[in-house]
Amino acid sequence: MSAAGRLHTPLLGRTGWGALALFVAVAGVAIPILNVLPAEDSALRVPDFLIALLGKFVCYAIVALAIDLIWGYTGILSLGHGVFFALGGYAIGMYLMRSIGIEGVYASDLPDFMVFLDWKELPWFWYGFDSFPFALAMAVLAPAALAFAFGFFAFRSRITGVYFSIITQAMTFAFMLLFFRNDTGFGGNNGLTDFKRILGFSLQDPITRVGLYSASIAALVGAFLACRAIVTSKLGRLLRAVRDAEAKVRFSGYDALQYKLFAWTFSAALCGLAGALYVPQVGIINPGEMHPANSIEMAIWVAVGGRGTLVGAVGGAWLVNATKSWFTVAAPETWLYVLGGTFVAVTLFAPDGLVGLLRRLRLPGRSGLDGARSGEARPRGPETRRPDSLNVGSLKAKSLTESET
Amino acid sequence: MVARLAGEPLDLYQGMILYVEGLTVAFDGFKALDDLSLYLEAGELRCIIGPNGAGKTTLMDIITGRTRPDEGKVFFGSKLDLTSMTDHEIARAGIGRKFQKPTVFEKHDVWENLELAARGEKGVWASLVGRRSGELVDRIDEVLETVGLRDLIDQPAGTLSHGQKQWLEIGMLLMQDPLLLLVDEPVAGMSQQEVERTGELLSGLAGEHTVVVVEHDMEFVRSIANKVSVLHQGRLLSEGRMDEVQNDPRVIEVYLGA
Predict the structure, then answer these.
(1) Which backbone phi and psi does B230 adopt, to 5 degrees?
(2) Are strands B180-184 and B71-76 parallel, antiparallel or unpaired?
(3) Predicted confidence band at B53 (pLDDT cuts at 50, 70, 90)?
(4) What is the pLDDT of residues A58-106, one digit of tens each?
(5) How far is A373 from chain B (nearest CA, A)?
(6) Among the listed ranges A372-386, B120-134, B215-229, B242-256, which one has the minimum average pLDDT value?
(7) Predicted confidence band at B256 (pLDDT cuts at 50, 70, 90)?
């Protein structure tokens, strides 16, 4: 790339836009149409259960983007993103509870669990959740606020690495215990469920469900482009710099705390959005979503797909969940072993995930550079390589970049 | 010399840029610095020498906000108290540092390394929405020329040789355009030719910038320094021109004579 060519940093290359357009055409247009138009028994018809399953996967993909931004790009491993996802889900769940109206079991204006607990009026923190826009805003703002407060104190105390990961686990665990209590006011153990409608549309209606699926696709595309805008900007280059050499970033005059806090908070907000799209589609939110194991699983999606590439994170979420769907039907008791084994194998043999593996297959000998280009968190300095192999790598790098321009 | 800061110009009362006064810092009872005072004139090139453990790096750490002193003050110009500022604030005020071990962003390419080091807006929002200006591209081009890395702009910095990394880091300091440059052992591990080029570059920077060099290589110090400060056990042992310092019996005893 010439110096002048550096003036413009495109959001996506031509292939990237092409692939995105293809994705939207298939997942956002063709699949919904094939669910709605063909007759019930037509071979072309995309069955309803598949729409529900894909809708969940799309939400998981947004979570993977969020985790990749903070882990793959900024080098901060969160093992507590489940709490942000669940808070987003609870916010929209509260709206769905309120929209049941008096059609609940007890025919009261209050949600059933409150009647059951003999509460006479709505707690103050349920105010406003009759409104969909308010609930949607809270689905993003509540996780963001929690992340901001948590991140501010953790980052200011310079808590990093595995210590940070552990306290994120503690955070999601603490929230799980809190939400398990009936007195906390979110339905305790059972959480929020028995939803009837969203924005006046019945949640049982297949058209509503395909609508929710399409909304998730739109959110995924939006989230992808937003993350892409971040990682291709100078902000993105600074996040990667924070990951690789935080002290140097500070000595260059940047307040690293602000950068980490931004990525962390944005990531949590994105996760909240994913939770808000997820809950109407699965019909329930309970504290189980905050279980530490869920958050670990989310990190595994990203590790499997490939840290530091957005497409890799999305692919990882889909691959792991598709495998999970198959295993939990075929051999449910083996699933956790498969998941754990996959994680160990990826860590040992493919630290760049599937994306790294694919690159290595396609361009043998370029692997050293791929680490540099993508988001490998493990420092692999040139001092560990022999000078001669280094030169070969750099020569190849040069000819490759030249052929690109 | 006029301070070229974005905000208020630095107050260089009587041409002094840095006042180190009565610094004491102890680590687990060991006094790394012991009532050290040191003054720097704007535009000078000062070498700081001393045996291992003399407190050279600790002094740099305090100036750049990495370590807090137990006692004493450091003033940048006559008004800015560095001991009450954070590391990034100090960097923004116009103090740049080159570490002993070359520290560059290994996975960013050479061009991006220089871009991130550039003087300018350092906030999150500015980084997100800001666009690269032609001015920046030109400035980077100039620096690439100075440090001789123009052919390597697309290379990840991690693949550069040791000497090239040192040069890249010096280039990053040039992009930062600090008033005061602290350079820790710049020629360690360099070839003779590279040492000479580095000497020329640092001498060329003095005048417009104030440069402090911490170095073990006496040959190199002799070739560039006007004034040398010798530290020993956290104190200032001697100060003056290289030949004066070399003939100081105390210096001969603790350092050069050893």
Answers:
(1) -105, 120
(2) unpaired
(3) confident
(4) 999 999 999 999 999 999 999 999 999 999 999 999 999 999 989 988 9
(5) 7
(6) A372-386
(7) low
Cβ-nearest to B154 among A9, A368, A398: A398
Q: How confident is the model at residue B257 (pLDDT cuts 50, 70, 90)?
A: low
The phi and psi torsions of A291 (rounded to 5 degrees) equal: -60, 135
Which of A2, A155, A228, A234 best tests the B interface by mutation, with the highest count of B CBs <10 A? A234
Count of Cβ atoms closer than 10 Å to residue A123 Cβ = 12
Contacts of A278 (CB under 8 A, 6+ apart): A56, A59, A85, A88, A89
- Are A95 and A131 contacting, i.e. CB atoms less than 8 angstroms apart? yes
Smallest Cα distance from B97 to chain A, Å = 7
Cα–Cα dist A240/A237, whole Å: 5
- Would the ipTM clear 0.85, i.e. be above it? yes
pTM of the model: 0.87
Q: If one looks up domain B13-98+173-256 in CATH, what number appears? A: 3.40.50.300
CB A277 within 8 A of CB A62: yes
Closest by CA position to B84, among listed B57, B58, B65, B60: B65
Treating both helix axes as pointing N-terminal to C-terminal, what angle do A48-67 and A292-305 enclose, rounded to 10 degrees?
Answer: 80
Model confidence pLDDT, tens digit, residues A145-168: 999 999 999 999 999 999 999 999
Tokens (6 digits) for B21 = 């006064």
How close does chain B come to A22, measured CA to CA in Å? 28
Contact list, B82 vs chain A (CB under 8 Å): none
User: H or E segment at B118?
Assistant: none
Looking from the CA of B86 toward its CB, the CA atoms found within 13 Å total 12
Name every residue in B having a CB less than 8 A away from some CB of A: 64, 66, 86-88, 91-92, 96-97, 103-108, 111-112, 115-117, 119, 122-124, 127-130, 132, 134, 137, 140-141, 144, 153-156, 158-160, 172, 176
| Candidates B105, B124, B129; nearest CB to A259 | B124
Total CB pairs under 8 A between chain A and B = 125
Residues in CB range of A137: below 8 A, 6 or more apart: none
